[in-house]
Structure prediction request, 436 residues.
Amino acid sequence: MTPKGGRYHHGDLRMALIDTAIELIDERGVRGFSVAEASRRLGVAVSAPYAHFADREELLAAVAVHAYHVFLSQLRPQMKPFRAPARRLAAIARAYVRFAGTNRPLFDVIFGAGVDKDRHPEVKDAERPLTDAVLDCVRALAGGDATAGELAVAVEAAAHGHAMLLLDGDLGHGEEVVELAAERAARVTLALVESRHLLGKPFNRHAPHPPPAADPRT
Amino acid sequence: MTPKGGRYHHGDLRMALIDTAIELIDERGVRGFSVAEASRRLGVAVSAPYAHFADREELLAAVAVHAYHVFLSQLRPQMKPFRAPARRLAAIARAYVRFAGTNRPLFDVIFGAGVDKDRHPEVKDAERPLTDAVLDCVRALAGGDATAGELAVAVEAAAHGHAMLLLDGDLGHGEEVVELAAERAARVTLALVESRHLLGKPFNRHAPHPPPAADPRT
DNA sequence: TCGGTTATCTTAACGCCCATCAGATTCTGA
DNA sequence: TCAGAATCTGATGGGCGTTAAGATAACCGA
Prediction:
């Protein structure tokens, strides 16, 4: 809370570290973030963070948890206007891409910081409301159908893929670009739902396995 | 070529570094890779690599270029059996996910090593045949239609999203899982193509903008 | 109010890593 | 043959993650 006025104890170093981490990641990317520099920026010894986090990864995991909370707080009002499951899925996809485009450091921490979600269950817990929301919609559409899981994966994949292309691709920057990508993701989601009958049908004839990997190195 | 038998010159240190980098990334992940350890494993001074690469990132960029070459060499025979553009797109998506599932270190270098493609045009060049292949198919489907670019993005997003969920999600491991994810990506691609008429129609009513970001940190 | 326990922070240190530099060795081609 | 270019070594500097031992502050029961 109080930004350290020369006192021995900081006040709330744990939370300050999370905030500063987001700042630094915003400035230099996940890869450029270092615990030491965060400490320096807070006027604290480089070893101080280790009273609150076991290691660097645990700090990043805490940032990821925060990121999920922010995302869900933005998602909920965007889902509210819609009752039809298909529209709700589209709203999720749209919110997902918007979040990536307008909160890049948070999105990057979730997917680009290399936080092992198996070793940090808090992150998985923070993620669960999102996957539950998707599953609820999908089940309402497909019932107990075996294609439900498939549709859920497809929806998540489409949203995530559009987000990645927005951030790393050649689409450019700016709010219009974000909204364009978000709208595309929403439309694709609707397309997936409407053609979900396709997902059940087998389509694997003429699908040869890959040959042994060649090695055309330069 | 020759693995250094005590000679002063290594023989082909540049290529050996690329190979060793892939080994190390396979063992410890992109994040755990270090130039120093690669040097040690090759019996060479830790400063030797800098005669061939300006810095760590340039070495990883070379690995990424190699990765694209491998992927394209696997993609081509998988596209060959198909002539219909839609089927060719599906084959691309399938090959994309297969590549991610069976060549994880290479896939991780491309997307998870933080290589700035703007600062390393070689990577962009190595990537181009892939994006061209997608664009060719899409244009054959949509002509000069304005939805062509949109469809291309959707296809790439779907493939990439399925690959990410395969690697980082809870789908499990093993060859069957890879093939399942690949087949799903292929089917989703077909669904996208068949419903591409949807992509042209506007769908933005009832799409509220996100509220100012709340901050429900723990 | 006091005193001990616990949480938090500091100082110091270790090992690893990236990167640079000067100089030694080998290769190349004119 | 030999000069210049390419490649590698050894040494060095600076940064980072992490741990250990001890100082300081906050807390809480008596």
